[in-house]
User: What shape does this take?
Amino acid sequence: MKIKNKWDEEFEVNVGDYVGFKCDIEQIGRVKEIQRRGALIVENKDGFDGDYIGGDTEALVGFDHVWSEA
Assistant: This one.
């Protein structure tokens, strides 16, 4: 699926791709699910870092807040 972030970067994202996002700190996760409402479920099996999502293995991130880590 082609998405566009708040920096006007347009890129293709598919389940299994890696994307970056910022939540406390810059993080990287693998796309687990693409939701039509403009969000991705991103996972990191080792758990994310930071105070807000630290330790969580999944995060819901809006299209406008991710960038490609291809």
